[in-house]
Amino acid sequence: MSKKILIINPFGIGDVLFTTPLIHTLKDAFPGVGIGYLCNRRSLAVLENNLFLDYLFVYERDEFEAVRRKSFFLWLGKINLLLNEIKKERFEVCLDFSLNRQYGFFSWYCGIPERIGYDFKNRGNFLTKKIRLSGYTGKHVIEYYLGLLKFLNLEVKYRNPEFYLKEEDLAWAEQFLADKQVDVDNLLVVLIPAGGKSWGKDSYLKHWPVENFARLADKIVEKYKATIIILGDSSEKEICSSLKNNMHYGALDLSGEITINQLGALISKAGLVITNDGGPLHIAVALGRKTLSFFGPVDPAVYGPYPLDPQRHAVLFKELDCRPCYQNFRLKTCSKDRLCLKGITLQDAEEALAKLLNLGE
Question: Which domains does the chain have, with CATH numbers?
Answer without folding.
Answer: 4-152 (3.40.50.2000), 167-357 (3.40.50.2000)
